Amino acid sequence: MLKTCKNLLKKNAMNNQIEKELFELLGDEHQMTSAETPLRPDAFEKSDAEKMNTIEKHFHMIMEEMGLDMTDDSLRGTPHRVAKMFIQEIFSGLNPANKPKISVFENSYHYDKMLVEANIRFNSTCEHHFLPIIGKAHVGYVSNGKVIGLSKLNRIVDYFARRPQVQERMIMQVFNELKTVLNTEDVMVVIEAEHLCVSSRGIKDSSSFTSTIQYGGIFNEKENRDDFFNLVNKEK
Ligand SMILES: [Zn+2]
Questions:
Q1: Alpha helices in 66-207 (DSSP H)
Q2: pLDDT, tens digit, for every residue of 71-113?
Q3: What is the 125 CA–ligand 1 centroid distance (Å)?
Q4: Could you tell me if residue 70 is inside a domain?
């Protein structure tokens, strides 16, 4: 995101209004302080049902405040739908209870080269604007004697995507989780995503997308990163 903003800033240096909006965006992005999602200590003391009730009431007020007629048949159910969608779907990855259970298996095939799962599609939400982030993750690792089911890689990406996010934090969370689950440093993650807060509002640049890359262990060597990218590009 930061890189995209800087490039756009260069391109549009002459345009004051756009520049101001970009500074605002840059300011937003600087607020990510750690790889952990900032959660309150009492985040899960209330039940999902209680949270949905409260969100529904507040969302009703937001819509009403905007002047919408909340007695209209088309709008009446919206606050309830939004509340349910927030808690049960798009932000369900906030709750550790929803974390996918990952079981590891012995690497009985003795396959000891890298495994790459490319083009893992995900939908996330920008925590600065609550607009969608739509992207693809590419994940690779070398087994340290343990392997996990391929679909578990998708599930891990999906879990961390289902939160208010910034892309830089999401990639760190996926990377750290894979290192822990697989008990190895030999992990690489690449994320490419379109941020609707960039493409549909503010600067309205629909062609830019944001890339992040994180790796450790054998991927510190360039030839292994090259192998990773060759495998990813083959599957595109
Ligand atoms: Zn945003």
A1: 73-76, 78-85, 150-161, 167-182, 196-199
A2: 999 999 999 999 999 999 999 999 999 999 998 889 888 899 9
A3: 8
A4: no
The pairing of beta strand 132-142 with beta strand 187-195: antiparallel
Number of domains in the chain: 1
CA of 208 to the centre of ligand 1 (A): 14
Exposure of 135 by Cβ count < 10 A (0-12 exposed, 13-18 middle, 19+ buried)? buried
Q: Compute the distance between CA of residue 136 and CA of residue 180 in angstroms, rounded to an integer.
A: 22
pLDDT per residue as tens digits for the range 163-209: 999 999 999 999 999 999 999 999 999 999 999 998 888 878 878 89
**Structural domain boundaries, residue 170:** 97-234
What is the reported pLDDT for 212? 97
**Residue 9's CB: how many other CB atoms inside 10 A?**
16
Catalytic residues: 126-129, 167, 195, 197
Residue 32 in domain: no
Distances (CA, A) of 29 to 22, 196, 197: 11, 14, 12
Report the CATH number at residue 127.
3.30.1130.10
The model carries a pTM of 0.84
CA distance 224 to 217: 10
CA of 142 to the centre of ligand 1 (A): 34
